[in-house]
Amino acid sequence: MFEIKGWKCGILICYDNNVIENVRATKLLGADIIFMPHVTMCTPSSRPGAGFVDPQLWQNRESDPTSLRLEFDGMKGRSWLMKWLPARAYDNAVYVVFSNPIGMDDDQLKNGCSMILDPFGDILAECNTFEDSFVIAAITREKLIQAGGHRYINARRTDLYREIIGQQHGSTQKVVWLHPNNS
C-alpha cells in the first residue's frame, strides 16, 4: 500500500488479480486505486476459445489489421478480460489501472488492452491501438461511495463466513505456463 496525492493505492501483479480474495483484501487495507500490471492474454488455457495468437498476424498488422483485431478482441484476449476485470472494480468499489504489453514478448504475442476502470466497472479510458500507448482519466472520490461495491463491503457479515474463508488451504492449481512440462 502507498499513497499518491492523497489517494490510497495498492498493486497486485498479474495472476494475483485472478484470485478474488486478493483484490478484496487490498480494498480492505484501504486501497481506492489498484494498479494491476500484467503480461497476459493470448496464452494457453483450458478455457474454450483461448490460446496463442499467430505471430504472423502481428507481422501483417498494417496490411490486415482486422484479422489481428478480431483475435485480440475475442476470447483469446479482451473478451476474456471483460469477464472478470470490471467485476473486480465493481465488487470492491475501486479504480483499476490495468496495464498489459502489446506486441511480441519473446515468442508470444500480447494484445495490450491496457485500461482504467471506475468503481462501477465502467471503462474510463483504454489503449486500443497496435502501438505502445497510454491513456489518462479523471477520477473522483464520489464514485468510491456511489458504487454498489461500497454498499456490499459495508453489508458484509464476516461472522457468517469467517471460519470458511480462514480454513487452512494449500494451493493445488497448476497454471500451464508455470509448469510447462505438465500435460
Structure explained in plain terms:
With 183 residues, this protein is of the alpha/beta class. It contains seven helices and eight strands, in the order E-E-H-E-H-H-H-E-E-E-E-E-H-H-H. The model has no long low-confidence stretch (mean pLDDT 91).
SSE topology:
Elements lengths: L1 E3 L2 E5 L8 H9 L4 E5 L17 H5 L5 H9 L4 H15 L2 E5 L2 E4 L2 E4 L3 E3 L5 E4 L14 H6 L1 H7 L3 H8 L18
Parallel strand pairs: 2-3, 3-4
Antiparallel strand pairs: 1-2, 4-7, 5-6, 7-8
Helix pairs in contact: 4-6
- What structural category do the secondary elements indicate? alpha/beta
Cα end-to-end separation: 38 Å
Major β-sheet strand ordering? 1-2-3-4-7-8
Helix segment tally: 7
Helix content: 25-40%
Give a brief outline of the structure.
With 183 residues, the protein is α/β, with parallel strands linked by helices.
Please describe the structure with a list of short key phrases separated by commas or semicolons.
two-stranded antiparallel ribbon; 183 residues; single chain; six-stranded mixed β-sheet
